[in-house]
Amino acid sequence: MKTVLVAFVVAGLSNLTGWANPFFPADTITDYYEVETIQMPKGLTAETDGLAVMPDGRIVAGFHRGEIMIYNPKIKTWKLFAEGIHDPLGIMAVSNSEILVMQRPELTRVKDTNGDGVADLYETVTDDFGLSGNYHEFAFGPVKDKKGNLYIGLNTASNGAGIFPEVRGKLDTLGRPGRMYSAVPYRGWIMKLTPDGKLHPYASGFRSPNSLGFDANGNLFAADNQGDWLGTSKLYHVQEGKHYGHPASLLWKEGFPHVTPIKLPVKMLDSLRTVESVAFPHSRIANSPTQPVLDETGGKFGPFAGKMLIGEMDHPYLIRLMLETVDGQIQGACAPFLAGAGLRRGNNRLAFAPDGSLWLGQTDHGWAGDEGIQRVRWKGKTPLELADMKLTPTGFALTFTQPLDAATARQVANFQFKRYYYEYHEAYGSKQFDVQPVAVTNAELSPDGKTVTLKLADLKAGYIYELELGKLRSTTQQNLMGRLVCYTLNRLQRNTQANP
Predict the structure, then answer these.
(1) Residues 6+ apart with CB under 8 A from 122
(2) By its UniProt entry, which Pfam families does this protein fall under (predicted)?
(3) Are 53 and 352 in contact (CB under 8 A)?
């Protein structure tokens, strides 16, 4: 009885004075996640372009100047595995002695065949795509589906530099105009490599798809960076045969008229594109999203198992994705994650290890960012976070990781919405159009205290719904970690809904 009384008194003092309460969990993000900065080898320019975890838990990383190195986290040592790789912007670990590397000119198999820890086999897997010599023709991936197909992404070229006298693949100057262009095949495409070794064009319309990833149901996703024809950065559900908006790559689409794509009317180009699943409001959420990765840790990384994270170059945090299928299409929400936890900027590559820790490879690559590698571990306590956001016919259902204090959860003032959209046009980026507040007319709390169902005064497709959460707290007085979330509402909820 005395223990209960003391706890009650301490809780009251904490609420009145703000004094730290030893009976309740702490409520800053560093009490839930810890960030370790990995010491890099001396003399290495640690612009981390590729990152993967080997089956035995060692980390394999590729760097901008061509080194592939392996880090053993148990003994904290580095070893050079391979070198001479040109922009290794993606690594997939095949075994403890073999990796696939997506370098600029080709997808390469790199293997240690004699067991000395150093690669002695470099083998071309595929190079069946064009190169003009333009500095911006990066290549990303690979990722592998359940059928054994590999997928890679090919960047468009930049008008900030030209074309070399000798190119690989067919040169078509109709693809040359524009800020970002596609003068050789298949710049601006996601490509599919089948197990028989044939490379096939899979989906078009990408500007700079900095890495690929699958969700728990095998859906392929790629992020694209704000620029010409992209009013803001976006996450696409990539499906075979579809076009995703950047016109330059249409030149290489079978059966497409032999014309300069960007000279077609904007209305026509708009009708050809498949819209994004998630739009990342520029500066508000992301400037340059990077690699999407699935949390397959089974809860070892906290309460977000089965969800996806994505990296971000310009901000010192990651982004959590909350996706759902509405009216047959995947759409959903994004929110900053681990802000204030000690992450650096430039989070370019992400990989989960068997122990549930998340490894982050960082680069500036001549733009914003930092260099090196960090490791994030969950400390075992569950923070108060928005775990999921789902559309309803009249608003949104918000599910949290912990039961909420009922009094604050039912206050509509704690849920401030506004909506807007970005225009599809040739210019670089877009301002927000038709910015309007949207009133919440009712907030209903579920019996378990974890879900707040909000009724909005108006829902309209084609808008981003930005939500600022107020000072919500858990029943144990934990602070809400993140207060910003943005939902991309492409399709309205009708009667039934199937999650992806």
Answers:
(1) 82, 108, 109, 110
(2) DUF7133
(3) yes
For residue 90, which of 61, 67, 129, 128 has the smallest C-alpha distance?
Answer: 61
| Coil vs helix vs strand at 16 | helix
- Measured in degrees and rounded to the nearest 5, phi and psi for residue 465 equal -100, 110
Neighbours of 297 (CB within 10 A): 19
Structure tokens at 351: 């990989």
Rounded Cα–Cα distance for residues 66 and 103 (Å): 9
Q: 409-426 pLDDT, tens per residue?
A: 999 999 999 999 999 999
Taking the whole predicted model, whether its pTM rises above 0.90 is answered as yes
Instruction: Say if residues 177 and 264 touch (Cβ distance below 8 Å).
Output: no
Q: Which residues of the chain have pLDDT under 70?
A: 1-26, 495-500
What are the angstrom distances between the C-alpha of 335 and each of 231, 304, 409? Answer: 19, 13, 19
Residues 356-399: tens digit of each pLDDT: 999 999 999 777 889 999 999 999 999 999 999 999 999 999 99
- What are the beta bridge partners of residue 362? 347, 372
Query: What is the pLDDT, as a whole number, of residue 26?
Result: 59
CA atoms within 13 A on the CB side of 352: 22
Structure tokens at 106: 């080709």
Strands 220-224 and 212-214: antiparallel
- CA 55 to the chain's CA centroid: 23
Furthest C-alpha separation in the chain: 85
Q: How many helices (H) and strands (E) does the chain have?
A: 3, 34
DSSP structural state of residue 31: G
Query: Helix, strand, or coil here: 331?
Result: strand
Q: Could you tell me if 300 and 378 are in contact, meaning their C-beta atoms sit under 8 angstroms apart?
A: yes
pLDDT of residue 495: 63
Q: Is the peptide bond before 289 cis (omega within 30 degrees of 0)?
A: no
Contact 401, 447 (CB under 8 A): no
Q: ω into residue 142 within 30 of 0, thus cis?
A: yes
- From 97, 69, 101, 70, select the one nearest 85 (Cα to Cα): 101
pLDDT in tens, 13-34: 333 333 344 444 558 999 999 9
- Strand ranges in 271-404 using DSSP code E only, listed in sequence order: 278-280, 289-294, 308-312, 318-326, 329-337, 347-352, 358-362, 372-378, 386-391, 395-400
pLDDT at 11: 37
- The confidence score (pLDDT) of residue 20 equals 40
Long-range Cβ pairs for the range 439-442 (8 Å, 24+): 439/412, 440/395, 440/412, 440/415, 440/416, 441/412, 442/412
pLDDT mean across residues, the chain = 93
